[in-house]
Design goal:
By secondary structure, the protein is of the alpha/beta class. It is built from 17 helices and 20 strands. A hairpin with a 5-residue loop joins strand 4 and strand 5. Helix 3 packs across helix 9 and helix 5 packs parallel to helix 6. It starts with 9 loop residues before the first helix and ends in a 10-residue tail after the last helix.
Length: 485
């Protein structure tokens, strides 16, 4: 039996959804995109162009939900299936878009550069329990106008896994789409085997900017999957109660679903988000707070009730170093997310309120992911009945270390961690060098960087992607790209 966890009953979910409908159909949503406003008007919604406001109609919402796919899959650069976003399947991906990196040598937080990104991609390409990569770092050594496309460029060049990505500008979408077409070969092939998920973020409360709403439209035109990242802050830019925040999150996410499905019915999507409570003591948005995790798991239940696969920024930490707090918050988040059945769990590697990435933390989090993926397999009998012969053998041999039953099921039943996690006794730990968790994590990062094998993406495709990136850079005065090693 697969263990699960729930925070909302069906009646409460229905009440929350009903209130979200009422907000959308009474107060509406502010949308700062003329074309999107006109699209709503064409579909019968009440639109105030001067105030950039749309008052929804219930049938528009219901029609959008009806056309939204119940599931979809992601594929790597070679077209192999990697992620099945259906039911209670869970997949882990690193946290995204950090502006800082934790430098292992100095223990200081600094701006990342191209080398940091490449090392990250080399590592994530080899982490068994991280199903996809993300554009995790924003390199500071390229022009800001190409920082979005440059991250996707490096990801596709060095790693075969699909990519959770996004763009902060309208113009960047075109080149990022062209990268994917270069990999897949045609629009049809890209629709059939999606390579990326784009994060599209409404602005709380109840607003879509010109850029983010256009991102939704652009992705829908090419059937590129999106994840809606609503970010209400409980007690600040949302009601202080968890239920009130869930109502706002539902309304904002539903509005994105409608924009996507009006543009192209059937566009795949994830019912996602990055909400948080607001810590009034420090004016921070703690992603490691238990209430934040509860909101994530609860809106996942709403997404499943609406029949849409889900995503959440969870399994990350607000700690500033790789320490006990980082493990505490990331471990609890990953466990709750997996038990809740969040389909795409975004967060491994992330610190400091989603602003800092640590590759050392990523390899530790990979071990957390391994443990929780074992957890959700649950407990099932494996030739345990009748039990009498096993215990007769135990009493005869005084152990079961080499019994047929043990040898058959040991690796299936027991999850053994990699070298980052130390299970040796104290004497053996001392013999092995008395390394701390952080030291072991760094050694694992170095080992993975050194053992990296280049992506098997065709060389002519790699060259096409490089040419596209170089041309895009020159448009903004980036005459040459940083050296890549």
């Amino acid at each position: 039996m697969r263990p699960t966890i729930e925070f909302l009953g069906k009646n409460l979910i229905q009440q929350i959804v009903s209130e979200a409908y009422l907000i959308l159909c009474t107060l509406g949503i502010e949308i700062h995109n003329k074309n999107v406003l006109e699209m709503f008007s064409d579909h019968g919604a009440k639109v105030d162009i001067d105030k950039s406001r749309v008052i929804f109609k219930e049938d528009i919402i219901q029609k959008a939900l009806k056309s939204a796919p119940k599931s979809f899959k992601l594929y790597d650069v070679n077209g192999n299936e990697t992620n099945d976003f259906s039911g209670y399947n869970v997949h882990f991906t690193p946290g995204s878009t950090s502006i800082n990196v934790l430098d292992y040598k100095t223990k200081q937080i600094r701006k990342p550069v191209t080398d940091d990104y490449i090392n990250y991609v080399k590592v994530v390409s080899q982490l068994e329990h991280i199903a996809s990569q993300s554009t995790a770092l924003i390199p500071a050594d390229v022009h800001e106008n190409i920082s979005d496309s440059y991250r996707l460029f490096l990801s596709l060049l060095y790693c075969e896994k699909p990519v959770v990505t996004g763009t902060f500008t309208i113009d960047s979408f075109e080149i990022m789409k062209d990268f994917q077409l270069a990999v897949r070969g045609s629009e049809k092939a890209l629709r059939e085997k999606p390579l990326t998920v784009f994060s599209c973020c409404p602005t709380s409360p109840l607003k879509w900017s010109d850029v983010t709403s256009q991102n939704v439209v652009d992705c829908a035109r090419y059937s590129i999957p999106v994840e809606f990242i609503s970010m209400p802050l409980a007690g600040f830019m949302a009601p202080v109660t968890l239920v009130g925040t869930l109502i706002q999150h539902t309304a904002e996410t539903l509005s994105g679903i409608v924009i996507s499905q009006l543009t192209n019915p059937g566009t795949p999507m994830l019912y996602g988000g990055s909400p948080a409570i607001f810590d009034v003591r420090f004016e921070t948005t703690p992603m490691g707070a238990i209430e934040t995790m509860m909101i994530d798991c609860a809106y996942n239940e709403i997404g499943k009730y609406l029949g849409i696969p889900t995503q959440a920024y969870i399994a990350l930490s607000d700690a500033k170093q790789l320490n006990a707090q980082a493990g505490l918050e990331s471990g609890i988040g990953a466990t709750l997310a997996a038990l809740a059945g969040i389909n795409n769990i975004s967060g491994p590697g992330m610190l400091d309120f989603e602003s800092c990435f640590s590759t050392e933390k990523l390899v530790v989090d990979n071990e957390i992911c391994k443990q929780v993926l074992r957890l959700v397999k649950g407990i099932e009998p494996k030739e345990d009945f009748p039990a009498l012969p096993i215990f007769e053998e135990l009493l005869k041999e005084k152990h079961l270390l080499i019994s047929e039953h043990t040898r058959k099921y040991l690796r299936e039943e027991h999850s053994f961690p990699g070298p980052v996690i130390n299970r040796a006794n104290r004497a053996r730990w001392k013999e092995m060098g008395e390394f701390t968790l952080e030291e072991r994590a760094h050694m694992e990062v170095e080992e993975l960087v050194n053992s990296y094998k280049p992506s098997t993406l065709a060389e002519d495709t790699k060259r096409e992607i490089i040419n596209l990136m170089e041309r895009e850079g020159k448009k903004y005065g980036q005459t040459s790209l940083p050296d890549r090693y």
